[in-house]
Amino acid sequence: MCDNDIHPGLVENWTLSRRGFVATGLIAGLSTAAHAAAAKVTEKDVTVTTPDGQADAVLFHPAGKGPWPAVLMWPDIMGLRPVFREMGRRLASDGYVVLVPNPFYRNKRAPVMAGAIDFNDPETRKILIGYRQAMTDDAVDRDAVAYLAFLDAQPQTAKRKRAGVQGYCMGGPLSFRTAAAVSGRIGAVGSFHGGGLVTDTPASPHLLIPKTHAAYLIAVAKNDDARQPAAKDELKKAFAAAKRKATVEVYPADHGWCVPGSQVYDQAAAEKAWSELLKMYKSSLV
């Protein structure tokens, strides 16, 4: 769970147009070639039927017939919003069928908050944490199964290749749960400044590792590591015990650094994390 102790005053301001951000190169440091590739991506707002209702989401895939490997992208606690559309579009331009859901569809359609989001504001924090608490572990598992089934129903999806899942902030634990809930399908898991990957409860995400069959990339924020320094070692031990291929690395950046619009966005560190993610997908989604 994200809280204001981890990222005080974390604000996303996505009031500039997509064109303005592309023109200034602020979308995760995209190169001119990457911009051109992203322009050839098909984007579609979709509705995914889950056991709990109708989830709004956005689907991306490269122009053409494919097929390409599928990836589920879990947003952070501020939910599906323009910046995650940009990130989904960018990933699709690298050759993937990408689904970015609104994780809070039980409460509200995306975007669940308009304009700049200040997580340090008590009322904002109360609303977003309330949305997150409505997502029980069992509910997340049901959603994960539905989202992967939706991806596999797309004609562009390479169903014979393993799928990936990646998550930011609260999306880190959700990615672990996805890998366990659809263990026969998920071949790679990326967690970026994931919150609460190791807890002292029986529901701790790291205890799910033996139930999965995936490679892992765990990118830890430096302030998360300072707050819970033993977590990275617990993760490494859990991966080793389960014999899962994993990279666990503390980045020299603060919680939220991978998402443009954050006050702590760190382009160099975000680009490194993105590059490592693509390397893992290339080797594991086969």
UniProtKB/TrEMBL annotation:
Domain (Dienelactone hydrolase): residue spans on this chain = 56-283
List where the protein spans the membrane: none
Q: What is this protein called?
A: Dienelactone hydrolase family protein
Q: Which PROSITE patterns match?
A: TAT (PS51318)
Gene3D superfamilies cross-referenced by the UniProt entry: alpha/beta hydrolase
Organism phylogeny: Bacteria, Pseudomonadati, Pseudomonadota, Alphaproteobacteria, Sphingomonadales
This entry's Gene Ontology molecular function terms read: hydrolase activity
Keyword list (alphabetical) reads:
Hydrolase
